[in-house]
Amino acid sequence: MATIGLIGAGHIGSQIARLAVANGYQVVISNSRGPETLSELVAELGPNARAGTPVEAGKAGDIVVVTVPLKNYRDVPVEPLAGKIVIDTNNYYPSRDGHIPELDNESTTTSELLQRHLPTSKVVKGFNHIYASELTTDGRPAGTKNRRALVIAGDDSGAKAQVTHLLDQLGFDIVDAGPLKEGWRIQRDTPGYGPRRTAEELRKDLAAAKRYADQ
Ligand SMILES: NC(=O)c1ccc[n+]([C@@H]2O[C@H](COP(=O)([O-])OP(=O)(O)OC[C@H]3O[C@@H](n4cnc5c(N)ncnc54)[C@H](OP(=O)(O)O)[C@@H]3O)[C@@H](O)[C@H]2O)c1
Q1: Nearest CA to ligand 1 atom 17
Q2: Longest Cα–Cα distance in the chain
Q3: Which of 1, 3, 11, 161 has its CA 20 to 30 A from that of 85?
Q4: Who lines ligand 1 at CB under 6 A?
Q5: Which ligand 1 atom sits nearest the alpha carbon of residue 76?
Q6: Which atom of ligand 1 is nearest to the CA of 70?
Q7: pLDDT in tens, 142-172
Q8: CA distances (Å), 36 to each of 18, 26, 30, 53, in order?
Q9: What is the gyration radius of the CA atoms in the chain, in angstroms?
Q10: In the β-sheet with 149-154, what is the strand arrangement from edge to edge?
Q11: pTM of the full predicted structure?
């Protein structure tokens, strides 16, 4: 049974944990305050879940999900994630994260920042444009008509193939936006950010996305 390590167990992290356990994965969840603060969630998730530190979740995960407020991305432990597939859910909200000049001037993207912090990990952008609550309500089996789709982006094709397999198992079609630098096409305030979309609709949304400077 594959293990998903979660760094961050808030709205999105807890929901990905629920979805993963419901689909036969093991999860190791972590937050900033320590595993003891996650006992209620672990009890709810059942025997295929445990809590650990971010280092433990990183070490345990076959795939690791980073889902913390973006301003804290530099706290993500580097060594335990070396060589691993890391799914990055993070978005940039200056009101929460403070101003990050390279994102304000659009010279980079959120997932490229995480990739730079985790140089040997294979970062794949994912789960960033769906409301947390919808993760456990909107998944459907492969082949369902009008199945909801989620966007990924990444620089490693093998990692993207594995994340595609994971998302499909969790109930979603997948649209590949290309390399990490194209991840801006699904960032906050783009057409695909938030609403329920099929793969075909999301492809149109990605094509129609505008840089903040052009909005
Ligand atoms: N909420 C959504 O619907 C949604 C949808 C898509 C994407 N996102 C993005 O996904 C990310 C997470 O969002 P969220 O809504 O789940 O946030 P959240 O509810 O505030 O949860 C954040 C989690 O990260 C943990 N955390 C914070 N700093 C940490 C650190 N330094 N090391 C380890 N864990 C740390 C927190 O632990 P403590 O509580 O112990 O500090 C908490 O478990 C954000 O970038 C957000 O923009 C959110």
Answers
A1: 10
A2: 49
A3: 11
A4: 7-13, 31-33, 54, 67-70, 72, 75, 89-91, 128, 131-132
A5: 32
A6: 45
A7: 999 999 999 999 999 999 999 999 999 999 9
A8: 18, 19, 10, 10
A9: 16
A10: 49-51, 26-30, 3-7, 63-66, 85-88, 122-125, 149-154, 173-176
A11: 0.98
CA 86 – CA 74 distance, rounded (Å)? 14
pLDDT recorded at residue 15: 98
Task: Provide the CA 211 distance to its chain's centre, in angstroms.
Answer: 21
Query: Given 3-state DSSP classes, what are the helix, strand and coil percentages for the chain, each rounded to the nearest 5?
Result: 45, 15, 40
The structure tokens listed for 210 are 């505008």
Single-letter amino acid, residue 4: I
Under 8 Å between Cβ of 98 and 69? no
Distance 124 CA to ligand 1 centre (A): 17
Separation of alpha carbons 12 and 64, rounded Å: 13
